[in-house]
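[job 0417] fold request received: Serine hydroxymethyltransferase
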Amino acid sequence: LDVVRSVEPRVADAIGAELADQRESLKLIASENYASPAVLLAMGNWFSDKYAEGTVGRRFYAGCRNVDTVESIAAEHARELFGAAHAYVQPHSGIDANLVAFWAVLADRVEVPALARAGVRQVNDLTEQDWAVLRRELGDQRMLGMSLDAGGHLTHGFRPNISGKMFDQRSYGTDPVTGLLDYDEVRRIAREFRPLILMAGYSAYPRRVNFRLMREIADEVGATFMVDMAHFAGLVAGKVFTGDFDPVPHAHIVTTTTHKSLRGPRGGMVLCGPELAAQVDRGCPMVLGGPLPHVMAAKAVALAEARRPDFQAYAGRVVENAAALAEGLSRRGASLVTGGTDNHLLLVDVSGYGLTGRQAEAALLDAGIVTNRNSVPRDPNGAWYTSGVRLGTPALTSRGLGVAEMDEVAGLVHTVLAGTRPEAGPDGVASKARYRLDRAVADRVAGRAADLLANH
Ligand code: PLP
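[job 0417] inference complete; emitting structure tokens
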């Protein structure tokens, strides 16, 4: 840090403070983790200085032999780990991976009559005029994904994201009583809507998804079946989600981030069969610029780690811990969407505590517990204030906390939520943001959280 400090001390201070925050607070954000020192070191090095547009052995820059090495190793580990025919490890993030996949499917499936007449099949060969035709035709392309408030992700066709502008989108939700995915309802909507892409995957759905059933629905309506496994890739890698719950054998194309339960560097990845491989490899220059070779090096290391038996044990513990956390909260009276979890996350409906998600998130942070607010299905408080907080166990499991500690964590979360009261704004009107939490309670919980982590 001294080297950084000699140039910009404020950045050095922020890095130090971030390390302290991450060490001392209970990190329950379901999409975060702690990458290993090997992953962090593979990422912080001279690869960052290298341009390498293109693919392995076919670059638009000279001097890429070392980048070729790390990109090949990362792709090889990804193929072996997930049992995929093809892996594209260049996407810089989950959103990039999804964009690469969308364009691969579009390029593969959308016949633009004007282009077909001209014999043009590659997106890269399009002229301005072709693009005008393509844009018109794209407006008709449809995507069906999980609704945001049921736990889907913005990139699955929602308005504020480019995917919502590229596709005519519809969504499937969850059963209003059980909170579970209703496959018959997905089938009904798919038959009516006939999407080009049927999308599965989520950011806040606390249950496994049966990908075999989803593929059957996709086949019935002639859709390409895409799964965004960003959240649960670590559980697939760790062989906790197998058979019907492993997306790779069932989907035409799978995307993921590498930094959540998979515990790698921030980044994305696309897996597919041989039919889509050539289109996926056109991610650069279609959607991406130069790859991040330092991040690909770190992906290679993280994927190598995920192939080891201890990663399977880790993934198993992530799910056990989530179940224990859910059990501990339910026992104390918390209301959980779907009543529990069978993956790495749970969603607490904090309206039972008389709070909005925003108030709950802020109060928990005051007490050293880092979470994020999240909509619950059909949320009356909308996507900003929300009525839920999402909790996940990948990070605390990486710290070595187990089932016994999860019960204590549940107790701390409950103490904070039960001890927080909403407060009126200055105008006397009930605020969705303001809250009161006794400082002594917050300090006691923060102290206990730090003690729990001190041994891990
Ligand atoms: N897909 C899913 C299901 C996600 O949960 C996320 C991140 O929250 C993304 C994609 C986007 O990933 P990134 O933040 O790396 O762009």
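[job 0417] notes: The first helix runs from residue 2 to 7. The pocket of pyridoxal-5'-phosphate is lined by residues 31, 93-95, 153, 155, 201, 203, 228, 230-231, 257, 268 (CB under 6 Å).
[job 0417] exit 0
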